[in-house]
Structure formats: structure tokens, C-alpha cells
What we know:
CATH topology of the largest domain: UDP-n-acetylglucosamine1-carboxyvinyl-transferase, Chain
Number of helices: 13
Largest sheet: 4 strands, mixed
CATH architecture of the largest domain: Alpha-beta prism
CATH class of the largest domain: Alpha Beta
CATH superfamily of the largest domain: Enolpyruvate transferase domain
Mean pLDDT: 89
Shape: globular
Low-confidence stretches: 224-242
Strand order of the largest sheet: 2-13-15-14
Amino acid sequence: xxxxxxxxxxxxxxxxxxxxxxxxxxxxxxxxxxxxxxxxxxxxxxxxxxxxxxxxxxxxxxxxxxxxxxxxxxxxxxxxxxxxxxxxxxxxxxxxxxxxxxxxxxxxxxxxxxxxxxxxxxxxxxxxxxxxxxxxxxxxxxxxxxxxxxxxxxxxxxxxxxxxxxxxxxxxxxxxxxxxxxxxxxxxxxxxxxxxxxxxxxxxxxxxxxxxxxxxxxxxxxxxxxxxxxxxxxxxxxxxxxxxxxxxxxxxxxxxxxxxxxxxxxxxxxxxxxxxxxxxxxxxxxxxxxxxxxxxxxxxxxxxxxxxxxxxxxxxxxxxxxxxxxxxxxxxxxxxxxxxxxxxxxxxxxxxxxxxxxxxxxxxxxxxxxxxxxxxxxxxxxxxxxxxxxxxxxxxxxxxxxxxxxxxxxxxxxxxxxxxxxxxxxxxxxxxxxxxxxxxxxxxxxxxxxxxxxxxxxxxxxxxxxxxxxxxx
Length: 473
């Protein structure tokens, strides 16, 4: 992987994009699979796994807890010695960095242990990310969870003695992060799932992902019967042969959110890209990817987004240069990781773009709503920010004016999604001469989920400019 400077100018495309894009494995699936593998009674091999800061944090933590995890980054394989969830008390504090999935999943796993004291902490931003809903739910199951700092936030100290379900409902507020509900599902005894009662609406697609993985991995697929108005429909609890019993292999899907950046690239520069190994939409368990494809289909009609060579060959995105791109209005509540991709390219669209349902993203890696509003305003765009939305009115003349004056540095706030989203905007040849007009500060923050993003983008640029006539598409 090429070392990255502190500030990286983005080289615009002067020709339409072409080539193949290798995508990393899904972070959401990899970290769920690591925990589920630890809950299996025997070894499990995860193939196509993502190797990034978040997943390596999760793997290291499991190793600290006495669950051996062998890593082969080159082969994209984790081998997990499943122990039925039996963990041992670690000698050191478990550090989760700013990995929300690891923080919530490990909290639930440690609380379910039969004994031991577990201390978890993270970076300063992790100490601001919500945990209260999960803490309260685990406490209702008898967990002894203490918050040495602010109540409901990291750091945590867990004095484990197992989870002891009582009569009645297990209430959980997962409105601020569906990861809390997924964590509870994965560690709760199967006979108790029907008692879990979400008290507020939550983002359903990622909980459905958890349920689908549990079913395919040999766990009963939990259906929550108490609050169907929040989207749960009781499902059959057929117990399949577990992965561990067969010495099985669990394949990790390519990351649909990572795909969103390269899905958007042909909209910005024209051309055709093949996003390798992205599954057919009816088959994928990443509903956020399907929803984003639908949104981009409305942004640029006609655009062909399909699997012409079969679902295993990847998605092919084809766009003719010169056709209009339209602003859209969309509620991103259930697939909010991709809202930054749309917001970042909104300056190139014809008409305003309104993005709603994103209040919860203020408590993620950074305040994503405020940060996006700030960076777009820096580019001379009209932005109206509310607690739950962004309305972006493009101002292309002002964007070109500022680009002609200097290279604008985009702040990433240590957030990988800012870096990747604005990098795609910077690929547009705004000056018309191929000179950079946008630069990304701290591009190395992409290590969180897509460590070689800028290498992949550079390779696509090289392929696109290798002997292709500028008029082709």
C-alpha cells in the first residue's frame, strides 16, 4: 500500500472511467462474523474478510479474551477457534479505538461471560458515542456494568456473572445505533429472543443483516414478536448444521458502502466500471447497497447498473458523459453510511438535493451532518442544515471560481467517509485541464474500512487514461 501524505491532491479524470474495481470485504459483515464465529463450538474460517483498523481491533480483542484468531491479510482470511462464547479475563484494558461495532459487540460478549472483570475503552470520540441503550438492556438481564466516566458512555467496567433472564420483556432503545440491538441478539439465549422489545424505532437493514447471518451460520434466526410496528416479523427458528460442526467456511460479501464511491465515479466523470464481487441485489444481505443504487438511478437517468455477466461477476455501472444529473430528495435513515457519497457530489447535480433522516450520524466517527455542511459551504455551495437534514443547492459557477483560485483542502475530521466521498468529487475535471483543484487532508483515515482506497482510485485513473479516446464512454 502506497504511503499517503498529510494532504493528498486529487487528480481529476480527463477521460471517462473504465476498468475493474476490487472491493474490500464488508466491515459490518466481518465484525459480526468474528463474533458469531467466537460463539460457535469449534473452528470457523472467514474468507474474503476485511482487514482494516475496525476488524483488526475486533480480532485482537477476541484474542485478548482467550479466543484464538489467526489472521492472513494477504489471503483475506480469519481463522477463529470458536469456544461457544467462553472467554477469559484479559490482563489489559480492551481498546476499541473508534470502532462502534467492536465496542457494542464486545460489551455484550463480556457481559454474557460466566465470570471475570472486563475493562473496555476507546479514543476520545468513542467516549462520546452512545452506549446507554445496550447498557440498560444488559443490566435488565443482571449484568453489572459500571461507567467510570459519564453514565452511558465508554470507558466501561464489566463484572461478569452471566446473563440471567427474568420474566417479562427485555427492553432496548436502539434508536441511536442498531448495533446495540444486533449485539444483544447475538449473545442472548435463543429461547429468550421473543422477549426482546425495542422501545423506539431503529434502523432495520443492519439488524436484518445480523439475523440473516445467524440463520446462515447455524444459529436460529431470531424474530422479535413484541414490537412488530418496528419492522420485526417473527421468523422460523430452524437450527441448521452449524459452521463449526462442519468445520465450515463463511464467505464475506464485498462491502456495499465501499462500492458506493466507485458506483458514483461514472456519474462524476462518465464511463464504465465493473465493481468486482458485488453480489446480485436480490441475494445480498446489505440492503443499504441496494437502496443507494436506487437513489443513484434517480440521480442519473439513463444509467445502466446491472450484472450483465452474471451476479458473481460484479456490478457494471455504465454512464454516458453529457447526460444530466438531477438533485434528489431522499430519507437516508436506514442506509446513512452512504449519504456522504451523495452529498459530496451534490455540487455537480442539476437542482437541489435534500437528505433527511441523518440526525444519528452526528454521533458517529464525527458529527457528519455539521462536517458535511461546513465542507460544502467552503466550496461555495448553498447549504441549509437542520438537526436531521441537509439541503444542498449547487452553485457550479462559484465552485469553478474557487477552483481556479487555489486547491481547496477538505477536512476529514478523522472520518474515512469524508475522505472517500470528497475524493470522488475531486475526480471531476472542474478546471478542464486535468489539474487538481481539491485535496484531502489526512487521507490515511481510510484505514478504518478501506485501507487501499487511494491505491485503487489511482489504478482506475491509470486504466482510464491508457490509450482511451477522450470521446469514448
